[in-house]
Design goal:
By secondary structure, this protein is α+β, with helices and mostly antiparallel strands. It folds into two domains: 3-122, lpxc deacetylase, domain 1 (Ribosomal Protein S5, domain 2); 126-291, 2-Layer Sandwich (lpxc deacetylase, domain 1). The chain is built from seven helices and 20 strands. The protein has helices spanning 75-83, 106-115, 174-181, 190-198, 229-242, 260-272, 282-291; strands at residues 3-7, 11-16, 23-30, 37-41, 46-49, 55-57, 63-66, 69-71, 89-94, 117-123, 126-129, 133-136, 141-145, 150-157, 165-171, 187-189, 211-214, 217-218, 249-256, 277-280. Strand 14 and strand 15 form a beta hairpin. Helix 1 (75-83) crosses helix 5 and helix 5 packs parallel to helix 6 (260-272). The mean pLDDT is 94.
Length: 292
């Protein structure tokens, strides 16, 4: 059981949102123990906790909102925060959407590491899976199993020659996140772009921030960062979405063709399945160590 963490110095970044196509500025600020991850929308002054109760939309991105104010595409930032083990943070957003940057979490990780991460004098509670739980919604499935650590197994299966079937199994910690997950970019099909833009999506998308698949090839001049970059980005999204439960999860999460909607629905089932997990507090942890 580790100590809670926040950042040492303020982080500032800005850019265009993937879906809204509008400019936004984001500041990350340190926060005291037990604050959690909190979004503050400048202009309206609205405060939103990074929690599944704040999720209002999962169409092509994870959107949180309160009383009509929303912030879209929070998953890549939340993945960077969770992947680096940051527990307490104030996120000030001046805009409608978190900037997409290069479509991955790499720049966010670099900015946070440059600002520094500091330990705080209280341990972070965690959710320990003690009994298997399964969520299915037809095409997708998520299973959580007891495991000593945090492991994610992710499987994708596209009827497409370039993507096809890919799988990745990783024990998640700061090192594996930085090296294996953070660089993986969001991706999409050229054939879907016109329809998506007509429906209000990917207005800020370009070859600078999305891996575009045209026919059976990648259109980006730089190619892929990993041979299996597609499944790695899906795991990145899932790490951001899973963090919305509010605590680290100790268990083995198996995800088959899961997307934002399935991820959030799985979390909602998990929190209501009180026989499948336990919330381990600092008192529980210290008592266990004394007894063992």
């Amino acid at each position: 059981m580790r100590l809670q963490q926040t950042i040492k110095k303020e982080v500032l970044f800005q850019g265009v949102g993937l879906h809204a196509g509008r400019h936004a500025t984001v500041k990350l600020k340190s926060a005291p123990v037990d604050t959690g991850i909190v979004f503050y929308r400048r202009g309206s002054g609205t405060i939103m906790r990074a929690n599944i109760s704040s999720v209002i939309d999962t169409g092509f991105a994870t959107t949180i909102g309160v009383n009509g104010t929303r912030i879209k595409t929070v998953e890549h930032l939340l993945a960077a925060i969770a992947g680096l083990g940051i527990d307490n943070l104030i996120i000030e957003v001046d805009g409608l959407e978190i900037p997409i940057l290069d479509g991955s979490s790499t720049k966010l990780v670099k900015l946070i590491l440059a600002a520094g991460i500091t330990k705080q004098m209280k341990r972070i509670p965690f959710i320990k899976i003690v009994k298997p739980i399964v969520y299915e919604d037809g095409y997708s499935r998520v299973v959580a199993l007891p495991y000593n650590g945090t492991r994610i197994s992710y499987y994708i299966n596209f009827e497409h020659q370039l993507l096809g079937q890919q799988e990745l199994i990783l024990d998640i910690n700061a090192e594996t996140f930085i090296e294996e997950i953070a660089p993986a970019r969001t991706f999409g099909f050229l054939s879907d772009v016109k329809k998506l833009r007509t429906n209000g999506f990917v207005k800020g998308g370009s070859l600078d921030n999305v891996v575009i698949i045209g026919g059976n090839s990648v259109l980006n001049a730089t190619g892929l960062r990993f041979k299996d970059e597609f499944v790695r980005h899906k795991m990145l999204d899932s790490i951001g979405d899973l963090s919305l439960i509010g605590f680290p999860i100790e268990g083995h999460i198996i995800m088959e063709r899961s997307g934002h909607t399935t991820n959030i629905n799985f979390l909602r089932k998990l929190v209501s399945s009180i026989d499948c997990y336990t919330l381990v507090s600092e008192v529980d942890y210290l008592s266990y160590r004394v007894l063992n």
